[in-house]
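User: I'm putting together a teaching handout on how multi-component assemblies are represented. Below are the sequence lines for each component of a complex, exactly as they appear in our records. Could you produce the 3D structure of the whole assembly as structure tokens, so the students can see both representations side by side? Please keep the chain order the same as the input.
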Amino acid sequence: MIDSFPFDEWSDDIGGFWTFWSEDKTGTYIMTVLGIIVMLAAFAYWVWLENRKLAAQAALLRAAGGMPAPGGIPPGPGPSQPPLAGPSTDPGD
Amino acid sequence: MMASLVGSFSWLLAQATEVEDKLSLDSQILAEQFYFFTVVIMWLIHVGFMAYEAGAARRKNIMSTAIKNILTIAVVTPTFYYFGWYIYGCFEHGGPAQGHAGPDPEFPGFCGATAPWADAMGPNLQDHVSAVFFLAFLLFSWTTASILSGALIERVRLSAYLILGSLLGSAVWIMDAAWGWSAGGWLTTRFGFHDSIASAVVHGVAGAFTLGVLLNLGPRIGKYDLAGRARTFRAHNTHLTLMGLMLIFTGFYGFYAACLVIQSTITPGWLNIYLSPTTLGAIAFVITFGFAGGFTGGWIASKGDPFWTLSGGLAGVISVSAGADVYHPSLAYLLSITGGMFAVYVGTWIERALRIDDAVGAVAVHGFTGFYGVFLVGIFAGGYPTGVNNVPVSFGGQMIGILTFIPLGFLPGYAASWVLKKLNLLRVPPEVELEGLDMAEFQQDFFPEFERVPETVVLPTGEEVEAAPILLEGLAQTNGHRVGVGVSEERRTP
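Assistant: Of course. Below is the structure of the complete assembly, with chains in the same order as your input.
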């Protein structure tokens, strides 16, 4: 199957689409639009993820019925909320 | 005989053309290398901003502060590539240029070359300068966002800062650069506006934008007592802050150099951003004497406070940057002493009289001294010819620039942060602010092997006391409401 893919026949077209050397700018326009969409999506994700983290921590602190010492580590070992950042530490994963 | 002479002449002509082409290529490659290495040096500005702000933060907010500076690069780079550079190329006459011919007669194709799909904005063997010139401006853009960053620490949401920083770095400052920091900008060509190393263009406008944001963001919990007197939060590591400032200063030499134009086969030597002649040595004199005078002024005005002494150095340089291509070193020294002193006085006034909590004094150091620098050029360099049309510098022209740039910086900052505040996306919840942002953002303490000691705060009387009762009282005063949001406003929002 892979041997039948016409790399040599299409390589100029593919290279011209993805890189700058071709006169045809279609690929450049498409990548520009895609880049802008991904950039905006990243902004939206930043807002959403941070909002989730802050809301979870604020709810946890309110539910504790009292504030920890300002700047202090909340009681008990480990993080004060399920990790929302970083790789999973669940050995089952 | 005649045929032999003609043949020799043709051969000589071909040789001369070949030498000229090689010389031109060499010149372009030298310019390419020059800008590339200014970019490398300017990275130190951002290393410095990160260390500076992280050191100024309390222990509970170290990483949430530092990560802002790193993610500045993640957001300002694409936004500046897709939008900012085009604004610089095509908005020199106020609004967008018609077509891509560009309004600048010196660079007729520059507008079209700044679109993200242009040949100049990617690999191009025929163009050794456009890409590195863009990169130098990109680093300036990161700097404007970093100026905003420090003022907001310990209570702003990371995502809110990233949005505001992108707006400042990729739209606001580059608009003023198009108007007053380019050979074809309307402030340059009509009024001889002169701000050669970007006192107001970068620093002043970023400071005005920051002021607009701070008005909506509000102070940190516990910053002011009920009488409105300012308390002081102890920086967790002042050494780190000072090292950060020294790194910023090192990077400033790259910033200064990148503000010049060099391409020896087109221009006779170094030019400033308006294409008026200058030398690298002239600006090196001014930046160095600017630091010397600024440190001196900061030391005198703050009576030896280390933070303000070094901030005075930054303020000193910014206050002489606008005239760095024309000032005598002694004049730069004298003016930068006043800049360093004013930064301390204005910073204290903003904190105590206006009750605006600017955590690192950015509005005073960058905003005030940025515009002060442009003002000084109107006095001390009046009549100096600016730009290719030799429009003389004038006090009136400098004032028009200042009166244009202050609202251009302030209004977008105020409006954008007002919208974020209304959406409850500007500031972290008060409980999280009290505990520290690092626990909410990263679920960890970043000095895990060190025992925590009680957080302290310095009272207006100078007495240092345990912070907990004061901060809890400050939290109680919010009554669970979001700080910086009026109670009546909050009742209207879900």
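A couple of points students might notice: Residues 73-83, 87-93 of chain A have pLDDT under 50 and may be disordered. The helical segments of chain A are 7-18, 26-63.
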